[in-house]
């Protein structure tokens, strides 16, 4: 049994891009089939006035309708009349996609460096607060209108990236110089981020005109603008410019991995730390640098959550950072794959709302259904990551230029 499992892991590790896509698509269809059976059977235990009667048993839920609402409802029901490309449901889907691209990239950068950053949520929280506070105070001295838009939006994103990066550097330093487990430190720092930001908010930055725990609203001209004519309406809390920036950043991170010495050192330190150290890569510096970059991307996610969605920082931050972990795993930590995985999660988020309004399926069952699909699609890639991390290396040990074997020598 162990031998067969090892062979399966090895097969997954060696799978080409095309094979991995085929596996993911097959897993998606399997999840849809299993989920459909689950929905149908669950309907047999629900109460309804009308349903499908089989052998004296009434089944209340129609799996076809559920999947119709899940996948097409997230796009605004394009098969129905009067559909518009700039509808609210599609805006919600793309809004979540944009934020999850940033969060997924944050996790992927750390994972590619061999580090498990579970703290993207905390980095998003502190980065979002830094963005809101910076923009609110800077707006007092920066002119309004177009000048304010050009100055305040980049300033807010920069503030989120800097504070998120500094917060991500903390577990990086602890890992590099104290050998502290980054999983534990990043998880704990999530709780610290929530407590510290809540305290700072109530102490200094609470909106005096609101009883809700939130900062003062940023000026409207400091929010991410929509694209005229072809863009979505401002009330939809989504901008194509934000999505374009997310896609550009996604491509930039992919280029960083593939075309720069920093990206090469980051990938090598994650895949073969011994070979990287032998080649002169400073593992401590790479640990801190990769966690700082990861935290900065998490902070950018928080910045866009403030600048695009709410126009202020709220105490109750959604679990975008935690969802970014699943997005990264589903994408195989590939920056370009993060976009597709984020879009799938955006579809699930928007489609779940459509199911809730278009059917009588309970929210708990919707959560189980979407979780089942994510589990099926992500598990092959998850086992592939496990195989790459723990299978025995088959490459020979590096050799020195003088003919040595690269092993340790006596002092």
TrEMBL record:
The chain crosses the membrane at residues 21-46, 98-118, 124-142, 149-170, 182-203, 238-258, 288-308, 320-345, 365-383. It holds the Pfam family BPD_transp_2. The keyword Repeat does not apply. GO terms for molecular function: transmembrane transporter activity. Keywords: Cell membrane, Membrane, Transmembrane, Transmembrane helix. The keyword Nucleus does not apply. It is found in: Cell membrane. This is Nucleoside ABC transporter membrane protein.
């Amino acid at each position: 049994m162990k031998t067969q499992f090892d062979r399966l892991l090895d097969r997954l590790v060696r799978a080409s891009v095309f094979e991995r896509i085929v596996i993911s698509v097959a897993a998606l269809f399997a999840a849809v089939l299993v989920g459909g059976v689950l929905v149908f059977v669950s309907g047999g235990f629900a109460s309804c006035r009308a349903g499908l009667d089989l052998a004296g048993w009434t089944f209340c839920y129609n799996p076809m309708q559920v999947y119709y609402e899940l996948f097409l409802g997230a796009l605004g029901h394009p098969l129905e009349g009067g559909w518009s490309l700039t509808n609210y449901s599609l805006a919600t889907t793309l809004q979540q996609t944009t934020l999850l691209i940033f969060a997924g990239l944050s996790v992927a950068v750390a994972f590619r460096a061999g580090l498990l950053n579970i703290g993207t949520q905390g980095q998003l929280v502190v980065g979002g607060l830094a963005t809101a506070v910076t923009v609110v105070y800077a707006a007092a001295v920066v002119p309004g209108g177009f000048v304010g838009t050009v100055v305040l939006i980049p300033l807010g994103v920069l503030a989120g990236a800097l504070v998120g990066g500094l917060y991500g550097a903390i577990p990086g330093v602890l890992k590099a110089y104290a050998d502290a487990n980054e999983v534990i430190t990043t998880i704990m720092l999530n709780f610290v981020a929530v407590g510290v930001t809540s305290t700072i908010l109530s102490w200094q930055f609470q909106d005096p005109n609101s009883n809700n725990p939130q900062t003062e609203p940023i000026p409207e001209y400091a929010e991410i603008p929509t694209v005229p004519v072809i863009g979505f309406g401002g009330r939809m809390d989504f901008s194509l410019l934000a999505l374009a920036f997310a896609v550009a950043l996604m491509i930039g991170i992919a280029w960083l991995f593939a075309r720069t010495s920093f990206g090469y050192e980051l990938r090598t330190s994650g895949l073969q730390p011994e070979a990287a150290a032998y080649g002169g890569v400073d593992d401590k510096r790479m640990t801190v640098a990769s966690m700082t970059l990861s935290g900065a991307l998490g902070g950018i996610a928080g910045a866009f959550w403030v600048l695009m969605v709410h126009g202020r920082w709220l105490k109750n931050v959604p679990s975008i950072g935690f969802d970014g972990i699943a997005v990264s795993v589903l994408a195989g930590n590939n920056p370009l794959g993060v976009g597709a995985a984020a879009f799938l999660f955006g579809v699930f988020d928007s489609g779940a709302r459509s199911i809730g309004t278009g059917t009588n399926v309970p929210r708990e069952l919707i959560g189980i259904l979407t979780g089942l699909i994510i589990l099926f699609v992500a598990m092959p890639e998850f086992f592939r990551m496990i195989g790459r991390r723990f299978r025995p290396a088959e490459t020979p040990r590096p050799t020195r230029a003088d003919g040595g074997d690269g092993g340790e020598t006596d002092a």
